[in-house]
Amino acid sequence: MNIILLGPPGAGKGTQASRLIDKYGIPQISTGDMLRAALKEGTPLGLEAKKFMDQGALVPDTVVIGLVKERIQKPDCTKGYMLDGFPRNVSQAEALDSMLGDLSQKIDHVVCIEVPSEELLGRLTGRRTCRSCGAGYHIRFDPPKKDGTCDKCAGELYQRDDDNEATVSSRLKVYDDQTKPLIDYYSKQGKLRPVNGVGSMDEIFSRITAVLG
Ligand code: AP5
Ligand code: MG
Fold it and tell me: What would the pLDDT profile of 10-19 be if each residue is shown by its tens digit?
């Protein structure tokens, strides 16, 4: 099963993906995580991407399309995969359709996690992530047992550079202008599965698994 997780910054794509990995046994492919990993390694691609990410802007299409094309052909993707944060505009969606056509693959479901914008800023500014294992937390909604320390691996928790108020507002605008048109794009393909993203993380997980079957 090949899935796209669509939704604004802070909708819970990463949170739900980590639960879906366990249930369906398919990998999460997050372009945001891949770009942050490239930056951590100090590669030219990572350093170039940082300029865009710090402004809340999209990294050029050619960069992310290339990353995804390579990633979906890895052996762990043979049973399927979850794309998180890709595609992010219509031209990325068209490039995806074309690369999947070449590979005789298709997207089965586009899960769109819907959360009103008023709720997103608080989710993003309170998010903390583990530097070692990547686990996600929230200082109020999903706090770690010990402040600043990952429950799973005792790694250090950090705040993403783009989770400040100014960058979040640019990211939300970019979502409205460039990513929202994908709702119509996938609705026309009959693949859109809207899911209410307000409620507990468990409730949202149940709603998603209900639409995926
Ligand atoms: P990316 O990393 O993809 O970020 P994003 O889309 O902005 O989404 P987030 O990761 O911020 O949110 P999420 O939906 O995963 O929420 P989470 O589960 O963590 O992209 C970052 C940047 O990379 C982009 O701005 C761009 O520059 C670049 N980029 C990436 N992909 C690209 C592409 N394809 N093309 C071009 N550029 C690209 O949850 C958020 C918080 O809320 C957490 O603290 C969590 O604990 C909490 N939370 C989750 N669910 C709930 C709930 N139900 N109730 C309360 N709190 C909750
Ligand atoms: Mg994420």
Answer: 999 999 999 9
Percentage of the chain modeled with pLDDT above 70: 100
* Ligand of minimum distance to the alpha carbon of 33: 1
CA distance 80 to 74: 11
Answer whether 86 contacts ligand 1 (Cβ < 6 A): yes
Q: How confident is the model at residue 213 (pLDDT cuts 50, 70, 90)?
A: confident
CA gap 48, 50 in Å, rounded: 5
- 127 tagged catalytic: yes
C-alpha angle 85-87-92 in degrees, rounded to nearest 5: 145
Which domains are assigned to the chain?
2-26+79-116+175-212 (3.40.50.300)
| 138 C-beta closer than 6 A to ligand 1 | yes
Mutate-to-test residue for ligand 1 from 59, 82, 163, 198, highest number of ligand atoms within 8 A of CB? 59
Q: Are strands 109-114 and 136-138 parallel, antiparallel or unpaired?
A: unpaired
* Annotation marks residue 36 as catalytic: no
Q: How far apart are CA 136 and CA 144, in angstroms?
A: 9
Estimate to the nearest angstrom the gap between the alpha carbon of 171 and the chain centroid: 13
How confident is the model over 147-187, as pLDDT tens digits? 999 999 999 999 999 999 999 999 999 999 999 999 999 99
Tell me the pTM. Answer: 0.97
